[in-house]
Amino acid sequence: MERKEIKRIIDTELNEIVFTDIMKKKVFENSKRRISHPMLRYAAMIILTFMIGGTTVFAGYYFLNKVNVNKITLPELDAMQIVEITPLKAEKDEYGYIHTEFSDYTALQSNIGIDLLESKYATEQSYLQGSMETDQKNYAIIKMKNYIIEEMYYSPISLSMDLILSQEQLEQGWDTDYLGFYEYVESYTSKQGYKVNLIQDTTEENVENNYVSEKCAIFVADGVRYTLCGKTSMETIKEIVDSMEY
Length: 246
Fold this sequence. Notes:
The chain has helices spanning 3-13, 21-29, 38-52, 105-112, 167-172, 234-243; strands spanning 57-61, 67-69, 72-73, 98-102, 118-119, 129-134, 139-150, 155-164, 175-179, 182-189, 195-201, 214-221, 224-231, 244-245. The chain is of the alpha+beta class and 246 residues long. The strands form 3 sheets. Strands 4-6-7-8-13-12-11-10 form an 8-stranded antiparallel sheet. The termini are far apart.
């Protein structure tokens, strides 16, 4: 697909969102890598959808603090709140964002000066691939691939955290949309009292009889939004949620 055609599609889809020329430039320059600013993910994933096609699509962008699955708003979670973190000692890119990688979750928490939930099942962290994206002002996104290696299905469980850093961002909110092949499963209250939404990927459910779909649990604890995802059973993902503690 030609670059002009991609731009036309993005402009059509985002006609209700203020999308400056600078932001567009960043999307095109970074269309083959992860976009740092949450506002840009939606446009970036539109590009990637047409590039790779047929894959499970995730997109997150600002508005309120709701979780939507294919335009269906899920039951309300606990409220996100402002979180104070110690600024990272890293250089910002030309757009004012920081992207840093880490392999030690405990060290990361020490570096940013806050305690985050951990699971007792995250015993093997030699495969952990962590990253943090932030503008040091409004938001921070922490992601960890291979946070837990689930033994029954020999598949990794990922963990991500969304942090609001400013009053301005709190008032603006932070929606998360799961698009494409995700479906809502259920909501429940965890052992710790967190409101949890469960969704699953249906991409290949009819391809193989032994196919295990990706399950995601989304909840907010002390103002921070957590998302656990992995190809495992609903019982296991719930068990992991119940194991999350300080």
